[in-house]
Specification:
This protein is an alpha+beta fold. Helices cover 22% and strands 33% of the residues. The chain is built from eight helices and 16 strands. The protein has an eight-stranded mixed sheet, with helices on both faces. Strands 4-3-2-1-5 form a five-stranded antiparallel sheet. The N terminus is likely disordered.
Length: 335
């Protein structure tokens, strides 16, 4: 915390620091006989009517009365990463978008409106990288109309917790009644150590998701639209470990320059804890290395403890959190 020359804590932030990453200390229970302090670090997303809104890395918003502040300062926007490949949010957002393409898209300024008949939120949401070219309310009206014309709910994909992420946009969406339905994280790691973790023997690689691969894929009844999304990307590979009936394990990898993405890594429940997920990813990693990639990324949900432990053991670490905001119900907009 910020300490003055006299040894006292000081509040060295103002409303002019909205949009910056800050660290604040507040008196959590001013009525208690023993003072209790709480520290909060995140992006200062608003300071209105004597209340600060700070958005943490996870996307959680914390409201703090100005009167409870005892210390505060602006801190570096992006702490140095201790491991994993360096990358900006925008670079990863664009790479992730190329690895999971919609069947239809349209530009709204620097925003991309994406649709794929409802197959996954990623392929049916707005990617807002930059200025839509319109005031926010007008842009959101265009977004809702565009998705409504296709019989789809409007979603906006945002991110928090990294340099150049969108805490301010998240706050503006929430202020307008948009509801955050899903939060997950994008993790990054080095590719070569992953390739060395298992031999990868018995893994069959293919350019297409065949019937056997789809039999293990958790999304049943895959449509032609879904197949187009699954097959999209600069260089797509599908991995299969044959089993009795449906495959014992599957995975998908997209190679894009220095990046390799991993998705749809699934194992037969009866065959889990035998290293098959690692085997699949190692085989795909070696293929990606052959194509010139050096770094890897994947997405994992907050509540998937098993996957998080697996990927952490492989050397992956969280880069930023991402969220999908759904349009407000009729009559709730602007609440």
């Amino acid at each position: 915390m910020e300490i003055s020359a006299g040894g006292r804590l000081e509040v060295r932030i103002t409303a002019a620091d909205v949009g910056k990453r800050v660290s604040v200390r507040r008196l959590s229970d001013p009525g208690d006989s023993v003072e209790k302090f709480t520290d909060t670090v995140g992006v200062l997303t608003s300071w209105d009517d004597g209340v600060l809104l700070i958005t943490r890395k996870s996307g959680e918003g914390v409201r703090i009365p100005e009167s409870s502040l005892v210390a505060g300062k602006v801190v570096p926007a992006a702490p140095a990463r201790r491991r994993g490949p360096a990358a900006s949010y925008e670079e990863l957002a664009l790479v992730a978008a190329r690895a999971w393409r919609p069947v239809e898209s349209e530009r709204l300024g620097e925003w991309e409106l994406r649709a794929a008949a409802g197959f996954t939120r990623r392929a049916n949401s707005v990617l807002p990288l930059g200025d839509p070219g319109l005031p926010l309310d007008e842009a959101l009206t265009v977004v809702r109309r565009w998705y409504g014309d296709r019989g789809l709910p409007a979603y906006v994909q945002t991110a928090t917790g990294g340099e150049g992420t969108q805490e301010l946009l998240c706050a503006e969406l929430e202020r307008r009644g948009w509801v955050r339905e899903v939060t997950a994280e994008l993790w990054t790691g080095a590719l070569a150590p992953l390739a060395d973790r298992a031999e990868g023997t018995g893994v069959v690689l293919s350019r297409e998701a065949d019937e056997a691969w789809l039999a293990r894929y958790r999304r049943k009844g895959v449509s032609e639209v879904a197949l187009k999304v699954l097959g999209s990307g600069p260089s797509v590979w599908f991995a299969t470990v044959p089993g009795a009936g449906a495959p014992a394990a599957i995975g998908r990898c997209v190679v894009d320059g220095r990046w390799a993405s991993f998705a749809a890594v699934e194992v037969d429940p009866a065959m889990r804890r035998r290293g098959l997920a690692t085997t699949v990813m190692a085989a795909l990693a070696r293929r990606a290395l052959d194509e010139g990639a050096s770094a890897a990324w994947l997405q994992v949900e907050e509540d998937n403890a098993g996957a998080r432990a697996l990927y952490a053991g492989m050397g992956f670490a969280a880069h930023h959190a991402y969220h999908h905001y759904r349009e407000p119900a009729a009559g709730d907009a602007g609440r």
